[in-house]
From TrEMBL:
Residues that hold Mn(2+) according to the record: 151, 153, 187, 214, 430
Biological process per Gene Ontology, one example term: diaminopimelate biosynthetic process
Peptidase M20 dimerisation domain span: 237-325
Domain of life: Bacteria
Protein name: Amidohydrolases: amidohydrolase
Keyword Transit peptide assigned: no
Keywords: Hydrolase, Manganese, Metal-binding
Any one Gene Ontology molecular-function term assigned to this protein's record: N-acetyldiaminopimelate deacetylase activity
Length: 459
């Protein structure tokens, strides 16, 4: 298969590289006549791409609701000459997702899937930029929330648009089939599953390789990083309801207080990782949402908590899940909760996903091409993270298809350098102040993804 070839024809790779502007050092990048053509094309496109990015950023949509974003992506890919199918993806409740699939065939050769996720997060934006989101929406719990592209999926979508244009305009440089995916619902971890459940590969072909990029606050714009092997952790979502016996706040002795039980549960939960889990096998347990009660002088009947867990090994994940159940039951037992009011622990399979494993051979190919395209000094290797991605689902069980995610620097270089000097990181994904610098981030993303795609799509 094409993805198992270990060598890259460097002469071909050099000719096909797209260059950046002189926003950072060019001393170790390759040049060619085609470089200049492609660089000119990107220079012509970049203002429009930045405007598209700002528009998408200003109009974020929560998971399962990416209608406008998917329509923008589909429209741009059609204009670039791709055959586009919308509303690909089916959730367990039977509802249709907003997935986008775009195909561009260019003779015999490998089939390469490039993926960009589209959904935003329930966060009130506080960046202060002129194109900040002021969108409000209602979450699954019925609460009004702000909506923000706080994980950079607006960067991913816009980068895909630029990459799609560059590849369509330079078909003489590559051979095979491009399969571009606009994926919904990454943040709820069910978007990739929904697209696969809607027979993605049966309908559009099974790829030989799958590639994505993800922007980050740990790198300056103009730079990227690639890892090999374990890259992002597996995730399991768990809901826990501590049930007690409610009553008047002035008569706690006549109640079994679930708020107190929830507090004890939270404290004891910390010992799962610190005392039950092998410290050489990383794991995380976090409670991100707690809800209970309606008034200060009413002890509620129950408190609900939403947990996320992270691990790389199946063994570690089992220890966590078993520990959560055992801890909840133990707290209830010590509080004297009656049999019919025992805690409810629900493992949400639809909001869980496998660890992301970057195929080593494909990672080496991607890293080599990025070094040629961007300059070796702008390509680094970062360690695995405990963040999670549902991207690994596209590789199918048992890693049948090699996948690689590389990280795209998104921080203003001057601000990043100052933050590094001060020893204080810039705000990262899933925070209200996450602020990618648009032009250089997009320019680097399009250059990187297009160069990688061209290098992989060779006979």
């Amino acid at each position: 298969m094409h993805h198992l070839k270990s060598g890259i024809n460097l002469a071909v790779a050099i000719v096909l590289t797209i260059t950046l502007s002189t926003s950072y050092g060019d001393d170790d990048k390759a040049f060619s006549p085609l470089n200049q053509i492609m660089d000119h094309q990107l220079n012509s496109d970049i203002a429009e791409l930045v405007n598209t990015y700002k528009d998408i950023h200003s109009h974020p949509e929560l998971s399962h609701h990416e209608q406008r974003t998917s329509e923008i992506l589909a429209s741009e890919l059609r204009k670039a000459g791709y055959k586009v199918t919308e509303r690909v993806g089916k959730y367990p409740d039977g509802s249709q997702a907003f997935g986008v699939v775009a195909i561009l065939e260019n003779g015999p050769g490998p089939r390469l899937l490039l993926r960009a996720d589209m959904d935003a997060l329930p966060i009130i934006e506080e960046t202060g930029v002129s194109y900040a989101s002021h969108v409000k929406s209602t979450n699954a719990a019925g609460q009004e929330v702000g909506v923000m592209h706080a994980c950079g999926h607006d960067v991913h979508v816009t980068t895909m648009i630029g990459t799609a244009r560059a590849l369509a305009a330079n078909r003489s440089s590559w051979h095979g089939t491009l399969m571009l995916i606009g994926q919904p619902s990454e943040e709820t971890l069910d978007g990739a599953k929904a697209m696969l459940a809607d027979h993605l590969y049966e309908r559009f072909g099974t790829p030989d390789m799958v590639i994505m990029l993800h922007d980050t606050n740990t790198l300056a714009a103009g730079t990227v990083s690639v890892s090999s092997g374990n890259t992002a952790a597996a995730v399991t979502s768990i809901d826990v309801t501590m049930r007690g016996v409610g009553g008047h706040g002035a008569r706690p002795h006549a109640t079994i207080d679930p708020v107190v039980m929830a507090g004890e549960f939270i404290v004891q939960l910390q010992t799962i990782v610190s005392r039950q889990q092998d410290p050489l096998d990383p794991a995380v347990v976090t409670i991100g949402d707690i809800r209970g009660g309606t008034k200060r002088n009413i002890i509620p009947d129950e408190v609900k908590m939403e947990l996320t867990t992270r691990a790389y090994s199946d063994k570690a994940m089992k220890i966590i899940i078993d520990g959560v159940k055992r801890t909840a039951q133990g707290v209830a037992l010590s509080a004297g909760v009656p049999e019919d009011r025992q805690p409810i622990v629900t493992v949400l399979k639809e909001e869980s996903g496998p660890a992301l494993f970057n195929d080593p051979a494909l990672s080496n190919r991607v890293k080599s091409e990025l070094a040629i395209a961007l300059g070796a000094s702008n390509v680094s290797v970062e360690p695995p993270i405990m963040g999670s991605e549902d991207f690994g689902n596209f590789g199918l069980p048992d890693r049948q298809i090699p996948v690689v995610m590389f990280r795209l620097g998104a921080m203003d270089p001057a601000k990043f350098a100052a933050a590094q000097k001060a020893g204080k990181p810039l705000p990262g994904p899933h925070t209200s102040h996450f602020e990618p610098t648009p032009e250089l981030t997009l320019r680097t993303g399009v250059t990187a993804m297009t160069s990688v795609a061209v290098s992989l799509l060779q006979l």
